[in-house]
Amino acid sequence: MRKGKTRSPGRSSVVTLSDVAALAGVSISAVSRTFTSGASAGKETRRRVLAAAQQLGYRPNAIARTLSTRKSRIIAVVVSYLENQFYPSVLEALSQLLQARGYHVLLFIRNESTSKDSETDTFLLEMLQYQVDGIVLASTMMSSELAAHCQESGIPVVLFNRTSKMNQVSSVASDNIEGGRLAARLLLRKGARRIAFIAGLEDSSTSQEREQGLLAELNDNGVQLFGRRVGEYSLEAASRAARGLFDVAPSKRPDAVFVANDHMAFAVLDVLRIELQLQIPEDVQVVAFDNAPQSGWGGYQLTTIEQNVKAMTEATVSILLEQISSEVPTPACHIVTPVTTVLRRTTKS
Amino acid sequence: MRKGKTRSPGRSSVVTLSDVAALAGVSISAVSRTFTSGASAGKETRRRVLAAAQQLGYRPNAIARTLSTRKSRIIAVVVSYLENQFYPSVLEALSQLLQARGYHVLLFIRNESTSKDSETDTFLLEMLQYQVDGIVLASTMMSSELAAHCQESGIPVVLFNRTSKMNQVSSVASDNIEGGRLAARLLLRKGARRIAFIAGLEDSSTSQEREQGLLAELNDNGVQLFGRRVGEYSLEAASRAARGLFDVAPSKRPDAVFVANDHMAFAVLDVLRIELQLQIPEDVQVVAFDNAPQSGWGGYQLTTIEQNVKAMTEATVSILLEQISSEVPTPACHIVTPVTTVLRRTTKS
DNA sequence: GTGAAAGCGCTAACAG
DNA sequence: CTGTTAGCGCTTTCAC
C-alpha cells in the first residue's frame, strides 16, 4: 500500500484534506468544516481554506465521506428493460430530479430474458454493498420478494409503477383502475361493443388493475369482455395475442381492444394494419396505456391513457428523500397519480 | 458518531468484518482474505468464516473496500438524452456487459436543453468525487473539453459514438464515412438523383462524418448534393428541415433524403407522409442511420445504415477494462466498427 | 471557533 | 497460512 505523501503523478484526485490543511495552515477539521454545509466555519479560516483548496484543485472524496457518514447520496434504480420507451422517459425524469438534489443514480437493468432468479439476489447484494441510500424498483416484472428483501435491510424502497400485496413497502403508481375504466368508457362511447383486452404479464399488478378497471366499467354498462389474451409486455407475445384475437372470421372479431400498455399496442397495430389489413379505427379501435413518446408520432397516433410521469417521478423522489432523512422508520405510503385519456387516431372521432 | 458495537436495529448491513471474525474465532484479515478472490485462504478457516458470515448475514462493504483499494468498480456513463431509442439500447447493452464483469453503472443524463455549460463541470466533479474507475461518454453533444478534463484527471475515458479532434482520448464509433457512402450508393442504385441531407448537430463528429461519406460517394459518381438542412438531432428541428426541403414546388423537390439518424428520420417521415402527402418510397426515398429498434416496426419500416451496438459496446468495455487494469497509462485507441445497410420500405425494392 | 483524536469497514504489507 | 498493524480520506465528538 502506498505511503502517506507518495503521489502517483497524473491523478489529480489525490489531493486530500490534509494537503489543503497544510497549505492553509489549519487543521484538517477546519478544512472538513468549511466543506460541510452548516458547520462552524471561521470566517478567515474559511477564506484561506478555500484559497488553498482552489490552488490545489481539491475535490472531496465522496467515498471517504460515505464511509464516515453512512450516506452515499446514491440511489439505485432498477428497471427490467429499456425497450419500452416509457422507461427511458421515467429514467430521464428521475435522474433529473435526483441530480438536482445532489443524488446520483446507480442503474441496474434486470433483463428478464437473460437473467435467472438467482440474479435477483446478486442485484440486491450489490446494491446493499454500495450502501445506496434508497432504491426505486421501476420494474414491473420484479418479484415482490426482492422488494421485501430490500425493505428488511432497512433501506428505503419505493415501488414505481407497480404495487405489492404486502403494504409494507411504499409505492407510486397511476390510478390504473380508473385508467381501465376510462378506456372502457371511451370505447363504449365510441360505439365499441365487442371489446377485448390484451394483458401484460399476468402477475403484474399494473396489468391486473388496468384489466380490473376495464371489467368494472364494462360490467357497469352491462357488457361482457369479448376476448382476452396475454401479451407479456413484449412485442412478440403481443403480436401473437393480436393474431389470436383478430385472425379469425370477421364475425368473431372484436371491434376494439384495450392493450395494457403502449409498447404492446405498437406491435398490435402493426399486425392489425399490415398483416391483417384491418382499418384503424374503422374496423377496430384501439386504446392503450402510458402515452409513451412514440404514441404521438405520425406512424401510430395511438389513443391512450396517459400516465403522469412528472407527478410519478416527483412523488417517488419526495418519498424516498423523506424516508432517507427521517430518523425513525417512516410508515410506507402509497401514492396514486391521476391518469388522463389522450385522444388520437386509433379511436373514432 | 456511533460507537463501535452499537447497532441501529433493522440495518442488517452493519454486520462487519470483525463481527464475522469474532464469531468464527479468527482474525479480521482471515475474513477479508476469504472474501478476496486469489488470497491465501485457509481451508478450515475459510469454512468457518463462511459459516459465520452466512449466519450473520454479512455483506462486504463496497465503499470501505473502495476507500482502501482505490477501485470502485463503478463506471460513469453519461448520455445526453434517452429519447432517441438508440441510446437506451446502448445503455442496456453496456450495463449488461459491465454487470457481467462486476462493474456498476453510475448514470448521468445531461439533458442539453435544461443544462448550462457550467453543469458540465459539476458533472465531472461528481464523477471524480465518486472515484469512478472509468467513464464512457455516449453523448454526441458533449464538449471535447469535458473529455479532455476527464482524461487529464487520469481516469480512463472512452468516447462512444463520437470522436474527438485530439487523439488523446480513446473512442469507439461506427465507420460513419463508409456508412455515408453506403447510403449514397444505395440511393444512387435505386435511381435517386436529387439527393438531400439532413444533418444532426453541426458540431457532431458523427453527423459530419456521415455527411462526408455521402458527399464523397456522390462526388465519385458525379452527382451534386441537392439540398441540405440541419435537424439538430431533434424531432422538431428535423420536421422543420423536412418542410424546408420538401414543402416546395415538386420540381424543386429532392427525390431522396439521407437523414443523419433514425430518430430524426421518424419525424421526417411523418411530415413527408402526413403533412405533405408524399408517397414513400415512390415520391421520395429515405435512408437514415442507426437501426434503432423502432426502425423495423410496421409504422416506419425505415431503410437504414445499422450501427453494430454489440460490437461497439463490447469494444467500449474491453478498452475501458484494459485501461483500468493496466498500471501504466495506455495509449488512446480508436475503434471503428463496421456498418451494414438494412433494406426496408423507405427505399424502392 | 478550533485542533486532536477516534473511528467508518476494509485491505495489504509485514512478521511470524 | 495467519494475526497484527497501519493506513484509505473524511467526519465528528470532545476539550480547549
UniProtKB/TrEMBL annotation, chains A, B:
Record-linked SUPFAM superfamilies: lambda repressor-like DNA-binding domains, Periplasmic binding protein-like I
Asked if Nucleotide-binding is a keyword of the record, the answer is no
Q: In the record, what terms sit under GO molecular function?
A: DNA-binding transcription factor activity; transcription cis-regulatory region binding
Domain HTH lacI-type, by residue range, is 15-69
Where does the source fall among the domains of life? Bacteria
InterPro entries noted in UniProt: HTH_LacI, LacI/GalR-like_sensor, Lambda_DNA-bd_dom_sf, Peripla_BP_I
Keywords carried by this UniProt record: DNA-binding, Repressor, Transcription, Transcription regulation
- Short name of one Pfam family: LacI
Question: What's the protein name?
Answer: LacI family DNA-binding transcriptional regulator
Per the UniProt record, the source organism is Allopusillimonas soli
